[in-house]
From TrEMBL, chains A, B:
Top-level taxonomic group: Bacteria
Protein name: DUF1989 domain-containing protein
A Pfam family that the UniProt record links to this protein: DUF1989
InterPro entries named in the record: DUF1989
Location of the DUF1989 domain: 4-168
Length: 193, 193
């Protein structure tokens, strides 16, 4: 059954080894930050550094694996109808809006939404790693310059992940204006047995 | 006084706020992996995701800051005579040599050398984040493809960092053939008050 993550919010759930997770952008141009933990030992978690190293590519998509800090495969990407994701940038946090966007009042963020939803698994703020940012469109130049552009995803684009171990998954509908083409939309997901 | 890190080994030490750390490649083409922790609370540590986000660049060099997972500045880069460093790839670990290089017997690694030296500060394997890889030359293509090339550093090249908080620093002379032009050399460092 399809679940909806409302705009600027998040979810956390168990995904068993062998189950598949389909993450859908129902309206287009909406990012979803995903973090992963070993369900039996939350000190093992998704690692950008290990994934970029083993996959030898900045752009992680169909056919690539998501690796843990302990060099184990956590997920395989089975389908990716959009093809552009980011694994460089940390989840947007209260400080992102203050430091990068000079926004001084309260602003929802992926970081807060991850903590709020993952707390039931005893995962705390300092445990949150760099997320795999589904549909996020971060462009890089030869000079290394990074620019956050609107996602290339259209309504209905999706990515399917297969779990290679029992996982705790944290998932958001991203809260940052810059990352989502200026408006906040929901994210849908579906666990397939 | 200059300290020497012997080939394929590591070191860990305290760097006080305001002190500077000079990391020198004495023979050329030698990488040094560096990790940072808040000396008063080791759950705060260097973050690739936060640094790439706030600095808006893949190539971190002179003038850039190294940020923590809590969005605080840990260090500023004051001088960089080489100019090429990496902040994408995880420290080489026993699994790196097994998975990427089909090397099945014991091989020294930055990961092991970091753990060994940081254990006196009660920092454990799972606490080690993606390191700032000084002098490491990781090339990226428009397609995202990553290639580890020999460092561009010549004998005597150095990077100077200023500590912006009291830090525990872990530092290595990297153990991976591919990252160091095929031979293992020492790394020198110097704490400047």
């Amino acid at each position: 059954m399809e679940q909806r993550i409302e705009p600027q919010s998040g979810s956390a759930f168990i995904l068993k080894r062998g189950q598949r997770l389909k993450v859908i952008d129902p309206m287009g141009q909406q990012v979803s930050d995903m973090v992963l933990f070993n369900a039996h030992d939350i000190k093992e978690k998704i690692s950008s550094g290990k994934t970029l190293d083993f996959e030898e590519n900045l752009l992680i998509t169909n056919g690539n694996y998501l690796w843990s800090n302990r060099s184990n495969k956590m997920m395989k990407i089975i389908q990716d109808t959009n093809g552009r994701n980011d694994f460089l940038l940390a989840p947007c946090s209260p400080e992102t809006f203050k430091i990068m966007y000079n926004h001084n009042s309260y602003h929802p963020s992926c970081f807060e939404n991850l903590i709020k939803n993952l707390s039931k698994y005893e995962i705390e703020a300092d445990d949150i790693p760099t997320a795999f940012n589904i549909f996020m469109n971060v462009q890089f130049k030869d000079t290394g310059e990074l620019t956050v552009k609107p996602p290339l995803s259209s309504a209905g684009d999706y990515v399917v992940f297969e779990a290679l171990m029992d996982l705790v998954v944290g998932l958001t509908a991203c809260s940052a204006e810059m990352s989502n083409g200026g408006s906040f939309k929901p994210i849908d997901y579906h666990i397939i047995n």
